[in-house]
Amino acid sequence: MGTKTTCVASHNERTRAAMWRAKVLSAAICAGLGYSMSGHAQTVCSDSQGAAAGTAVAADGTACGHNASAIGDGSTAFGDSAIANGDHAAAFGGGAIANGLNTAALGVNALANSDGAMAVGASAVATATSALSLGTAAQALAANAVALGAGSVADRSNTVSVGASGAERQITNVAAGTFATDAVNLAQLTDATHTASTFLSVGDANGDGAPAVTDGDGAVALGRAAWASGSESAAFGAAALAQGNGATSLGSEAVAAGNLALAGGYGASATDVNAVALGGNASASGVASLAIGGRNETADGTAILTGTSNTLASGVASMAVGAGARATGIYANAVGAGSYASDRSAVAVGGVVDVLYDELGEGFDGVNLQATEATARLASAFGSGAQATEYASTAVGTMASASGIRSIAMGYRTTATGYDATAIGDRAAATADWATALGAGNVVSVTEGTAVGGFNTVYAQSGVAVGYGNLVAGAYATAIGYGTWSQADDSVAIGHQAFVWHSGLPTDDQPAVPFSNDVAIGSYSEVFGSNSVALGQGARVGNSIFSPGDSKIVNNSVALGAGSFADRDNTVSVGSSGAERQITNVAAGDHDTDAVNLAQLRAVAGNVGDLANGAVTYDDSTKAKVILGGASGTVIDNVADGSLVSTSHQAINGGQFNQGLSTLANIIGGGTIVDPTGHLRGFKVSVLGQDYTSIAGAIGALDTAVNSLSHGVAPSVAGGIAVGQGAAAVATSSVSVGDASRAGGQMATAVGSHSLAFGPGDTAVGGGANVGADQSTAVGANATIAASAQNSVAVGASSSVQSASGTALGQGAAVTATGAVALGAGSVADQANTVSVGNATTQRRITNVAVGQAPTDAVNRQQMDAATTQAVQTAQSYADAGDAQTLSSANSYTDTRVANAVSRTDFNAFENRVEQRFGALDTRVARVGAMGSAMSGMAGAIAAAEGTDNRVSAAAGGYRGEGALAVGYAHRLPGRGAIIVGGALAGGGESSGTVGVSFGW
């Protein structure tokens, strides 16, 4: 009777020990995967948000494996689709289910489906309260029943079954019972005086093998030649060895040699303190190491991955899970068949992929195989065939490859080979240092290049492509939109299929000269030359080989407005042949190169008419005499001829002579007067504090000052993709970048927070930019194109276009008429096919206007003055022929005195040069300010994003009428650090970049 009581107590203690070891096993697994330990005794692992390695995890639960679920408090699920549904439930193995309080299921498809039930073995079933099934397909179907052995069935409460009906087993190696309810063995029947020296020791069935041996308090040995040596050690299986306090070996020839070591499976080996090896020939040889998996072969004995060993965890605190998985570095983790983690803190999670058959989708041939590998310190590889081979590199996705230091590759077959390179998206590639490719099919092969969207290509240094199918081939160039090309250095192309070309065609005696510093904004806009701007839908500068007509290079020109065409160097075109525009709201010109308005021209025409009304004529047709008369006399009367020179017949009097000299003195200024002898005297001006009494001296001093100033001013030389919280790209080949951005039409591009590109081919760049009409482009914060304004362009904060083919350029510029252009901040174009440079209350001068040549060219003030002078001269010749001759001598004298003096035109030219240089400096400062605003917005957007490891943001900024775009990427470093990389682009080729790093403690 006493003997039976002892056996019951032993069974309960072994059950508690098994449950304890399962918790230890779970803790070791999660620690290897990098999760933190909870403070609750029942919790194995979880992260700071309660997330775990599986797909559904409750408080203090642990789930590890594809679709694994740990639903109850303190539950544990380990294996593909494993489910632990109950407080303190534990499910280990693919498809294992532990459903109920304190249930445990260990083995593939094992099922424990009632409180306290435990199923151990593949397809083992325990469906009643406190039922226990141990063995493949064993079934415990009644309360407190025990089914022991493969196929055993226990269908009565409180029974132990070691077989099934028609498949009964003997119970061998049974120790002598000690209590009335204990089982007895044959030895008790034949030798009642024999007692066992340990709790249990069983020999082989035939009695001709070595007996089981125990050596230690509470030790258990079960199986032929099984040996349990150590306090509370346990050895189950033929030749199983448990050597060390609390060591457990389960399986034939399994070896657990170390305190608390656990070896389960045929030939499994756990040979250090707290080491765990589960699976046939699995090996865990490092302190606290974990190896789960069987032989490196399939069911028919074929090797899974040629050249690899069985599952091996040999590094301190390393973990290897899966057939042939190897973790050989300290703290290394390898999870998946054939996975390999070989350096300190390396992580490899994934299986083996057939390189050729995966691509073709035709199965698995076991020949062209690639395993998941993390072979450098701090490297991480997640996904079948993923490989991370450099320091701190990260590869996520099937066959993703990260081979650059701190590189990141995320997505199917992505490649990141450069230093700090980043590639995210299906087949994206970043193959140079600091290259960034975000989106499917993007390829960046140059240093500091960036591609965001889909299938963009960047192969020039620091190039930026945003959208879909764009090409950047110029250094520091930018392409934004769909199918947009920016091939010239320092160029910008924005809009659906906007083009900036690289160079013209070579000739027999001269190579092609590359273009640079170009801007094309608007759908189908095009620049074929250098230092030129095409602004508007279909606007063109020059004629490429793909455009109608002969190829022609045009430099330093501007095409402004939809359909405008600039076909000459150094020109500004606001239309095209047969589609000209008026230029409205033009302020009166002041300088020779200023444009004149209609009011100035009408005033000149009126003056010419007044001269004609007061004309003096010859007395008769012989033109021999002119008689002048008046109520108070006439200055010149009855002058027939006369001159101050021998060849002249013109009269002159003293008053006219003095008047001419006085006029000249007023022009010269500086206190100049006419003395009674007809000489100019008293000239004196101060330049930079120095007095000068000659015009030449004063001009020389001004020239010196201006040269000094100029030396101090440096001359300016298929599917959608969405990035950002709430971003949406809902049409084929559309791209949206920025929070709540939306690209709604095919080949549409929206960049900036709350930006909208509604129709096909639309491009919206800037926070709140809104494009509602097809084939239109808006650049700038809150820039807007109405739904009725097809083929339009709006550039500048709050700029707007309400009618078709309109172009608005400048902060608050507005177009409300078809084909109109509004140029400058606040300008309003409200008449069809016109160009406005102001509004009803504020006008502007148009400066630096070259001399017009064609009938539809603008004229400058110099041309108007020349025309006016010609008209006046014609009238005076008709009315005052005699008077004109009288002044000849004075003119000759005056010309002689001022021959070496500077003209007013020279002064105007000098002033224009100074204004141009300061204007260029102001523009550059404004662009720098816009880039700073964009960079601030980008950094703020990244900081506000959810605290994930990888974040991307884009932002548009504006300052004093200039706009800029900034794109950034942030990555959380292992530990408590982060790094951010960003860049900004503005007009004129201006660009800036930033790299930042932060650490916390």
Structure characterization notes:
The chain is α/β, with parallel strands linked by helices and 1001 residues long. Among the domains are: 2-189, Alkaline Protease, subunit P, domain 1; 477-576; 930-999, Pantoate--beta-alanine Ligase, Chain: A,domain 2 (2-Layer Sandwich). Helices cover 17% and strands 26% of the residues. Helix 4 packs parallel to helix 7 (861-879). The chain is rod-shaped. The protein starts with a helix and ends with a strand.
- Using the coordinates shown, work out and report the CATH topology of the domain at 2-189: Alkaline Protease, subunit P, domain 1
Number of strand elements = 89
CATH architecture of the domain at 2-189: 2 Solenoid
CATH class wording of the domain at 2-189: Mainly Beta
Shape: rod-shaped
Assembly of the depicted chains: single chain
The chain-level structural class is: alpha/beta
Q: If you compute it from the alpha carbons, what radius of gyration comes out, rounded to the nearest whole angstrom?
A: 46 Å
CATH superfamily of the domain at 2-189: Serralysin-like metalloprotease, C-terminal
